[in-house]
Amino acid sequence: MFKSKSIAVDGVGAAWPICLGYIPIGLAFGVLAQKAGLGPCEIFLMSLLVFAGSSQFIAVSMLDCGAASASIILTTFTVNLRHLLMSSALAVYFTKSSRKKLGLLAYGVTDESFAVNYSRLKAGKWDIERSLVLNYTANMIWIISTVAGGFGGQFIPAGAFGIDYALPAMFICLLVFQLNGQKYLFVAMLSGVLAVFLSLVLPGNMYIVAASIFSATCGTVLKKIFEKKSLKGRAHDQ
Question: To the nearest 10°, the Cα dihedral for 206, 212, 218, 221?
Fold first, then answer.
């Protein structure tokens, strides 16, 4: 009993900063979804079944523009491919966990929950049970916030309070906290410049994925080159 209580307290304690961010963004999404013609029930189902803020914002935007179902599905699937990488990075810490728990964990992986879980797993004293509590606490707050926004959207004019800027603001904040060195800054700048260029030649939102993959690959290659030079330098000094 005490162990379960400790797990719950640790998981919720780690989740509350994420939840504080999810509330305004979830409300903003709910308002935008309501303006796009979705009802509270549809917003609830999207948040429950998809649970990916960026994809939900993109899907609602495309729905509002009258995009075809196939293009919406393909775009959101492509944007969410990063979850495969995040889930793989977490899975190495849970080699002894059951497939059922891993499946439940994979559902709740988002950019924010991944960042918190990964950092705590690297630091130690963190496990899959605490990760699950964190993920599902954030999931619950997200669903409640989006549905609340859907109900309140009818009372808010379109574009009021800068609501349509909520998601870009969140990603800018996440980016700033990840700029821990020159390599990260280089990759961020390369990705931004490349995305602007590719937006002129690639249809839809594919330029975002292409720029991200290319920039991340360049960053990985540069990191390995610097690591090899560092190892050679140490060997030479010895």
Answer: -120
- C-alpha distances in Å from residue 203, one per residue of 113, 199, 214: 31, 7, 17
Structure pTM? 0.71
Contacting residues for 80 by C-beta, under 8 A, at least 6 apart: 52, 55
Residue 222 has pLDDT above 60, yes or no: yes
Q: Alpha-carbon distance 49 to 43, whole Å?
A: 10
Cα separation, 221 vs 213, in Å, equals 12
Determine the angle formed by the axes of helices 53-64 and 69-79, rounding to 10 degrees: 160
Three-class DSSP category at 140: helix
Distance (Å, whole) CA 31 – CA 64:
13
pLDDT at 158 over 90: no
